[in-house]
Amino acid sequence: MDHKTCRENISAFLDGELPEDECSALENHLAVCPECRAELKQLGRLSAVIKQHAMEPVPLSLKGQVLGRRGKQAAYPWLRPVLALSAAAAGVLVVLNLGKNPEQTAQLRQESFSAAMPMHKTEKASPPRTAEEPAAPAGRLYGELENKAQAPATIAAARGSYGQAKFSRNTGSISAAAAGSGSGAGLSSLAGAKEKSAGSAEALYARAAKKRAAAEFRGPVCLRVYKPASLNESDSNMHKALLELRKKGTRIVAAVPGNLVFVKNDGSRITLTEKDCSYGFIFFDGKQDPLVVTDLAGINDKYNAYFQSPSRP
Amino acid sequence: MDIEELFEKYSPMVYNLALRLSGNKSDAQDIAQDAFIKAVRGLGNLREHSAAGTWLYRITMNVWKNRVRGEKRRSLWKTLSLDWGSDGDETPALQVKSPEEPAGTAIEKQEEKEALEAAMAQLNPEERAMLILREIDGRSYAEIAEITEKPLGTVKSGISRAREALRLKMNAVLNDHGS
Q1: Closest-approach residue (CA) in chain A for B113
Q2: Does A186 touch chain B (CB under 8 A)?
Q3: Statement to judge: residues A88 and A149 lie in one domain
Q4: Which of B20, B36, B179 is the closest to A66 by Cβ?
Q5: Do the domain assignments include residue B23?
Q6: CA of B64, closest CA in chain A: separation in Å?
Q7: Do A225 and A143 belong together in one domain?
Q8: Chain B within 8 Å of A267 (Cβ-Cβ)?
Q9: What pLDDT is attached to residue A257?
Q10: How many domains does chain B have?
């Protein structure tokens, strides 16, 4: 792939949106072009900055404005009083016509005036269906780009930890960005905002934060769980394991320690908390339970053993 | 899925999409509110809950487009800058710093944020929208094409152009803070 074409496609490469053959051609070019490698590194860094800073907290009043209108909304709001009036009129007519049978009249009166009551959306929402396929968490480049040792390692580092969604997407991507994973933006900044009704607003956002805290993954996926103390921190063991897995063409999804929910193919869910895994890799094929690997030595063998396990249903 | 679930799950992205399209918080709140109200009306027609996000973001885009047409702005792509002012009776959200975070890092982050906002303001609204749908919500190019009602090639080139523009404008910040 020539230099010009590489530059035109480097953004799509970062997003995993290039066809395989173009991907390979671009990687071959990156191996010999320091300028394109530097640009890829910068784009990776830019991605991390956007994820960290681009989300603004939702205004407190918006929820009230939207949900406050919920009970009053109807698809055709003008129709409701017309129908209510019609039902009431029908009820009156029925009562008048059946005046000779008091019992029947009473029953029909009850039914008619029940029908004339204002229509409310009282039915419960249908059982939750399959959640939208969660997006891969936007992995931040935890110091990997600081390794200037070898071109292939830099390419893999810049792209892989940003690696997306051929496997799965998680609903936690928004929370990971908005909550800032330590940056303090989003929900924690909302908690710090001045509120008219502090108790209820805080409870509201605590509940929303709890709901958004879990990131969901479907198989097959290889998750890298790692939260450095700072953006400049670089863990050599983690980096080495990452390179080993990437040499095999494995796509890695980065995640921060927290509630990680693995959704099996049969719909059952397994949640791993920070106590289960705060550092390491998690392999998940959708059929078996996820495997937590915290000892990174021989990571490739462990990967093969899990994904090629004969015990796979 | 009821409106409360829809709001809890999608309001951050709907609001921020509206913000990046309109360029100011007041319009963003109006757009987000209108989008949810339209969504409520159409909820019964939503066949696949798995597509709720794509559907809702498309509604948000259409609400914005209608506002732009309705307001008859002089130029669709004029430079917009985010309004950082007070939201009336709401105190602007404060950036809460981790207690362990050294002061230098906080300053760097503030510089990054300011540089990002200044650079984002130079992009056209739809490119901003495509970029955050990709970067924040992890949407594929095909999904972004569906949401923005643009061809796939336009999405690919739009995101590429947006990133290149930001990269060039933020070159100093990206190099200083990344090294």
Answers
A1: A53
A2: yes
A3: no
A4: B36
A5: yes
A6: 17
A7: yes
A8: no
A9: 83
A10: 2
| A10 contacts in chain B (CB < 8 Å) | 160
For A90-94, what is the mean pLDDT? Answer: 60
Q: What is the pLDDT of residue A189?
A: 43
Q: Is residue A67 part of a domain?
A: no
ipTM of the complex: 0.81
User: For A152-205, how does the pLDDT look when each residue is reduced to its tens digit (9 = 90+)?
Assistant: 455 555 554 444 434 444 444 433 334 333 333 443 444 444 444 444 544 544
Reported as a single tens digit per residue, the pLDDT across B56-84 is 999 999 999 998 888 755 555 555 555 44
Q: Quick one: A151 and A38 in the same domain?
A: yes
Mean per-residue pLDDT of chain B: 81
The reply to whether A96 touches chain B by the CB within 8 Å rule is no
Q: Say whether residue A213 is in contact with chain B using an 8 A CB cutoff.
A: no
Q: Cβ contact (<8 Å) for A54 and B16?
A: yes
Enclosing domain of residue B44:
1-74
DSSP string for chain A: --HHHHHHHHHHHHTT-S-HHHHHHHHHHHHH-HHHHHHHHHHHHHHHHHHHHSPPPPPHHHHHHHHTTGGG--SSTTHHHHHHHHHHHHHHHHHHHTTT-HHHHHHHHHHHHHHTSPP---SPPPPP-PPPPPBPP-----SGGG--S-HHHHHHHHHHTT---SS--BTHHHHHHHSGGGT--THHHHHHS--SSHHHHHHHHHHHHHHHH-EEEESSEEEEE---SSTT---HHHHHHHHHHHHTT--EEEE-SS-EEEE-TTS-EEEE-TTT-SSEEEEE-SSSPPEEE---TTHHHHHHHHHT-TT--
Across the interface, whether the CB atoms of A62 and B29 are under 8 A apart is answered yes
